[in-house]
Amino acid sequence: MTEETLYRFMLDANEWWRTGSVERELCPETKRKVFGNILEFLGKPQVISIEGPRRVGKSTVVFQLIEYLLKSGIPSKDILYFSWDESISTDNQSGLDRLLEVYRDRISETGKNPRYLFIDEIQYLDLWQVHIKRFYDMNKGTKIFITGSGGVEISQKTKESLAGRVYKFELLPLSFKEYLEFKKIPTLNIRAADPIAIYEKLRKSLPDYKLIEKLFEEYLRKGGFPEVTNESNKNVIYKYLTESVVDREIYKDIPQAFHLREVQLLKHLFNFACENTSQLFEISNLANNLKASREVIGNYVTFLEQARLIAVVENYAKSDLKRARKSKKILAGDPGLAVSVLKHYDDLFTDKEYLGHLVETTALLHALRSFDSVNFYRDSQKREVDIIAKTRKIILPMEVGYTESVHSSANLEYFMNKNGLSLGIILSKKQTELRVKAKRKILVLPVALYLGMSDIF
Q: Helix or strand or coil: residue 394?
């Protein structure tokens, strides 16, 4: 690429040099939680790495950060953004050096490097981690932000080469609460330590639950990828999620990051997770069925976890060793991915068994974001509690019962008695209730309402 071409690319990508602001289409008003988390680290010297699966909105967060800097009074030409698209051809050994040289010679009003450097799609710059490390060590006056579509590869290389030099922020598909915010639906911000207080607040300010329930059903079908939130054509959703997310991760990103050959095995394992989401699985059984070794299956499951295409939840036990020995549950990493891969958009709400598993999956994924650790409970008598969520202060057991009938609390009460707990939650389809038995309190909430609220504990 010639210097003039590189210069033109920079002018096109940094329109705020001319206008003083980011184009509104690139910078929506609704901001993800991670945006506020990153702001706390703007004054720190370390590199900011925004990581996560494909198509979750990493570039959007970057443009929102740039707009924030501009509104904070940072001169527009002190901010350099560049997307290293795979179609851009450069001498990769000196690509970053050339970019900054052109910036200093033709853009900067001081002849110095930018105060803020944003590099998107950095995975297309060969040996990017080496260039970033060297630039960081030699240019303390520049705050660096990086993102990349190959979430696994970015995470691996930042861990290997930028240890101590980087703060990592993970961006995942939209939670249901974020989905409501994208839809401009007001959400309840109820937070209290006492379940009775929560119940009373809900009774006084119960939102339009019919609308929230309708949007929850929509969320189960579409999932949390921002670009499909307003898409109504199921075939467009199928194509977008399978081709732009699943296939790119499975056939390109993961094999490239871990040098894999058995790519089709990854696809089989991901399909298994979608078909059997929130159900028990054994590595040895998968190995027998897929005619692969336990070691290979175990590694491939880990790779899919690191790509956030799936999640694995362990059975509750008080010691790490006991948890490792027990059966585990496998989850699809997003309800919309599972529905698209299985083409369940139309029949999802007639297949009650699968619907129950998908709702449980969605609740578990929410818990994994919100609590320090998350397990399920299942004992030798097959007594099961769907979610055991822990923080430093509490252990919170939760049951998910997405049915018209009232859900039994027997297993929940057994676990609470066994572990000396006073509070449990049942996530229902529509019911709101507070059950008080002796010193035990069980709060029954509609799952859509719970997932759509701010963290209440």
A: coil
